[in-house]
Write a structure and sequence with these properties.
Number of strands: 7
Shape: globular
Distance between the termini: 31 Å
Oligomer: single chain
Structural class: alpha/beta
Strand order of the largest sheet: 3-2-1-4-5-7-6
Strand content: 25-35%
Bound molecules: S-adenosylmethionine
Helix content: 25-40%
CATH class: Alpha Beta
Largest sheet: 7 strands, mixed
Number of domains: 1
Order of helices and strands: HHHEHEHEEHEHEE
Radius of gyration: 16 Å
CATH architecture: 3-Layer(aba) Sandwich
CATH superfamily: Vaccinia Virus protein VP39
Length: 224
């Protein structure tokens, strides 16, 4: 991640959770996950291990971590990781969440402790990743057999550049993701049963003061 992007997220970290739209997007993705993975929702995955890349302040992580045995959070921004770490003491007892200031680029990163994961998540992060195929390959390689890669981001459209105000455009790699491209990358990474589908619409204020709905995709695949 270029330094300017890291410093943007470092400086936004302290106020990240005060944006109700951002908080809502993670809550909506959490609902989308629970609807499609009922075993997680009913607490039947408490012995499973997970990771998340681009976790930010942990808006999604704090929902998912209590449902799993161990939850490893990765983000290249120290500011984001500091905010997430400040939340750890107030998580439900028995929650094992660890945060790493790290771009996870290798499946044998020491942070993974020599073990795979059963779930790998990301939310609102793909649009920041320069080489999505490498990241998806890496995430697929971290999965145990039977493990799931579950990613979410806003969908590219003729108006999706409105998602970010113009002064942030230099900080993003793309204005949303294209479902067919992500599906192809997940299949190329060897994942099976890949599904990419609409998961929710997020109403968001845009430059100029009006509000737009942005469609989000959920991208899911399983390692055999
Ligand atoms: C839009 S924020 C989303 C944070 C969090 N997932 C949320 O929904 O609140 C994107 C996050 O991805 C991180 N990031 C930026 N570039 C990245 C990359 N190449 N790989 C992984 N994470 C990255 C940023 O530091 C930031 O925390």
């Amino acid at each position: 991640m270029p330094d300017k992007t890291a410093s943007r997220f470092d400086s936004e970290a302290a106020t990240w959770d005060s944006n109700p739209t951002t908080v809502r997007s993670s809550a909506l993705f959490f609902d989308a996950i629970k609807a499609r993975f009922p075993q997680l929702a009913r607490g039947a995955e408490k012995k499973k291990r997970a990771l998340e890349i681009g976790c930010g302040t942990g808006l999604l992580s704090v929902h998912l971590a209590p449902l799993l045995d161990e939850y490893l959070c990765f983000d290249p921004s120290q500011g984001m990781i500091d905010v997430l770490e400040s939340k750890i003491p107030s998580l439900p007892s028995g929650t094992h969440l660890k945060a790493f200031k790290e771009l996870l680029t290798e499946p044998d990163s020491p942070s993974l402790g020599g073990k795979g994961v059963d779930y790998a998540f990301s939310h609102l992060t793909l649009h920041h990743i320069p080489d999505m195929q490498s990241s998806i390959d890496c995430l697929a390689a971290t999965l145990n057999p039977g493990g799931f890669l579950i990613m979410s981001d806003f969908e590219h459209s003729p108006t999706s550049e409105l998602f970010h105000p113009k002064h942030k455009h230099h900080d993003v790699e793309r204005h949303g993701v294209v479902g067919d491209e992500i599906r192809g990358m997940m299949e190329k990474a060897g994942l099976k049963g890949v599904k990419v589908e609409h998961s929710f619409d997020l109403p968001k204020s845009v430059e100029g003061g009006s509000e737009r709905d942005f469609a989000f995709l959920i991208c899911m695949g399983r390692k055999q």
